[in-house]
């Protein structure tokens, strides 16, 4: 069982020029960790999502859509009196998105049921929601359970702005739990704004955070990883880009899926892994991210996904 926690968002996606008198958006289910969970479930992995939504129409709609994706939903709580969060994404002609987020959970505390970690073989978390004060204690409780039962943990920062010192303090508390860190080039640039804009240097800075496996995605130009004393780079995959929404989340799904195929059952086993399949895992994750970019939104199209599974699954 792969257990993931993060936001459930309704993404409103538009391609609106500044000169338009009115705005048009298409609503889709979103949230970084949820996008990763959705792709994992489509690949046949038993998947459970731990989160919250409002006790409103959008919350009910979101839970129904999540269940349709064959993701276990019994640990998604509906909170009364608050609306389900929204994100608004404006996509430019090159397919890149700018986001605005609208959240109103207030001071209510995220209190996930410890039973959510039952039978967990992998736990994934990340994004800015992991650094909201209301969420931290609940996430740390799940991480403590992961540590007690030696469950592998992955983390994706998925930043949209330069972090402050409060973020860094919490990141330092999270990192001892993390076995696999995946960051984008943009994440690394925001985390280390004074470092040279060189992927290898940025990866070296990420390695210093302490995860045994550290991955840096480079968009169209590929991905890099560091494991033990090795540094690996694989090329990107050229596709016609509709938008880049969810590409990093799809990469994360490919990374988790590929690592689990290695039958690594604990952090200790990860530390003794020979890593020979890591270039293949990076390449397959790149391909999964690339096919996600060929359509609007964060869901890989069915036929290319099936072809991916036949090649890498």
TrEMBL record:
Q: Enumerate the UniProt keywords alphabetically.
A: ATP-binding, Kinase, Nucleotide-binding, Transferase
Which CDD domains did the record assign?
A: bac_FRK
A GO term for molecular function = 2-dehydro-3-deoxygluconokinase activity
Q: Which SUPFAM superfamilies match?
A: Ribokinase-like
Q: Which family does it belong to?
A: Belongs to the carbohydrate kinase PfkB family.
Identify the EC number(s): 2.7.1.45
Indicate what this protein is called per its UniProt record.
Answer: 2-dehydro-3-deoxygluconokinase
InterPro entries named among the record's database cross-references: Carboh/pur_kinase_PfkB_CS, PfkB_Carbo_kinase, PfkB_dom, Ribokinase-like
What Pfam families does the annotation carry? PfkB
**Keyword 4Fe-4S set for record:** no
PANTHER family membership: HEXOKINASE FAMILY MEMBER (PTHR43085), PSEUDOURIDINE KINASE-RELATED (PTHR43085:SF1)
Q: Can you give the residue ranges of the Carbohydrate kinase PfkB domain?
A: 2-301
Q: Which domain of life is it from?
A: Bacteria
Taxonomy, top ranks, is: Bacteria, Thermotogati, Deinococcota, Deinococci, Thermales
* Origin species: Meiothermus hypogaeus
Q: Which residues form a coiled coil?
A: none
